[in-house]
Amino acid sequence: MTDEIEVRVLSTVEAVHEAAALFDVIWPGEHETMPANILRALEHSGNYVAGVYDGDLMVGAAAAFCGPPAARTMHSHIAGVLPEYQGRGVGKVLKNHQREWAFARGIGHITWTFDPLVARNAHFNLRVLGARVTEYLVDQYGPMDDGINRGDESDRLMISWALAAPAAPPREEDIVTAVAVPHDIEALRRTDPLEAGEWRYRVRDAFQGLLADGFVVGGFDDDRGYLFVRR
């Protein structure tokens, strides 16, 4: 299926507006997810704004901005694909396009954030791509009113993807402990929002305690959760 997927840099006003509308479909809410004028400004000033296409249909999009020149980094602020295209390898195609775009401009790392409770994103980011967790950010964006995040605190993990040398999984003998997360937090939020909220605080407390004690996230296991190793 991914052979038919193409990622294109968005350089026209029409394409940028299409991407902004797509983000609002993926994250429905009362306000614009990523206004078209911001996307246009990012693209025009040399940052990364791209769309994922299945033929002529845009099915995903992403926007990222470059960090300080000496840091050689790019921060991927938003990336998403339509629900019907999730779990089909489209995300990896998009990330590989970001990687090639960054490499061509002398950028060595891409950073982004994700919700630590979303197991499928942890699997993709840490196991598939080999990104590393660098920070646990408490309520990073404040209240969010989109249909996915509404009613929850916006804790995020900051991760860094070393483009030339992705992280390898930890050796079993190096794993000290694990922090479990729900298999499907998004479904749990719909069926038992109270339990979903309790997961937020359990995972937050566990992360903060382990990080304060000098441990780091070495990887992710689908059954055990986040795998912690000694720094």
Question: Which terms summarize this structure?
Answer:
single chain, 231 residues, alpha+beta, seven-stranded mixed sheet, three-stranded antiparallel sheet, 6 helices, 10 strands, globular
What can you see in these coordinates?
It contains 6 helices and 10 strands; from the N terminus they run βααβββαβαβββααββ. The protein is α+β, with helices and mostly antiparallel strands. α1 (13-26) packs across α2 (36-44) and α5 (185-191) crosses α6 (193-212). Strands 1-2-3-4-5-7-6 form a 7-stranded mixed β-sheet, with helices on both faces. A hairpin with a 2-residue loop joins β2 and β3 (57-66). The mean pLDDT is 93.
Furnish the topology, listing elements before pairings.
Layout: E1 5-9, H1 13-26, H2 36-44, E2 48-54, E3 57-66, E4 73-81, H3 90-103, E5 109-114, H4 119-128, E6 132-137, E7 156-162, E8 175-179, H5 185-191, H6 193-212, E9 215-221, E10 225-230
Parallel strand pairs: 4-5
Antiparallel strand pairs: 1-2, 2-3, 3-4, 5-7, 6-7, 8-10, 9-10
Helix pairs in contact: 1-2, 5-6
Question: Which parts are unreliable, with pLDDT below 50 for 5 consecutive residues or more?
Answer: none
* Rounded Rg: 18 Å
> Which structural class do you get from the secondary structure elements?
alpha+beta
Helical stretch tally: 6
Largest pleated sheet: 7 strands, mixed
Q: How do the strands line up in the largest sheet?
A: 1-2-3-4-5-7-6
**Averaging pLDDT over every residue, what do you get?**
93
Instruction: Tell me the overall shape.
Output: globular
CA-CA gap between termini: 40 Å
What share of residues is helical?
25-40%
Order of helices and strands: EHHEEEHEHEEEHHEE
Query: How many strands?
Result: 10
- Percent strand equals 25-35%
